[in-house]
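# step 3/5: fold
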Amino acid sequence: MKHLITTILLICTVAFTFAQNGDYTAQLEASVKKLDQAKSVGDFQLLEKTFVQLGNAQKTEWLPYYYAAFCNAKTGFLLQDDGEKIEPYSIRGEAQIKKSESLAKGDGKVLAEIYVVQAMIYRTKVFISPMTMGRQFGPLSDQFLKKAQKLDAENPRAIYLEAWTKYYTPKLWGGDKDLAKELAGKAIQKLGNAAFGVVPHWGKAESEALLR
């Protein structure tokens, strides 16, 4: 009888775990679909909260924290002309992307995705005050982009971020708008065959914006 009760409890636990995992997957898929359509600061901040909740519920998955950090990075880019508002987003984003990295289990392709967003987060810190924070966080952003490219040279999001950097860096300091557009076109080409779902697939709209 005791053995039977133990077996029943084990079956119930497994069934509950499967139900939880199914619910998590469905919520993550729905949230990523909404992220694909997000455009405003409000959109990204609502989704950040959702991804944080998913991460806190699941605890072992890198994707929710990655997407929460990405939402904060996008918010920072949208607010780049209003630097004083960016700091709380950059602080949260940095903590979230480091949490995502801690869950990546050393997977090079995953780390490449994470480092692209980490480079974006450090770029948002430059936006806060280019004169005082640019010297520290500009090179740090470049460093993480290079780490991403070393792990996955063909990652279209890394290619996009290099294009963005080349486009907005003054020519005197190594900027090159023609090269930036060439890189943006390369990113778009690679994203033409991108698989959708919950894996990172953003970057097409951002790359297209550099070609306008």
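# step 4/5: annotate
The chain has two domains: 14-128, 154-212.
# step 5/5: archive (pending)
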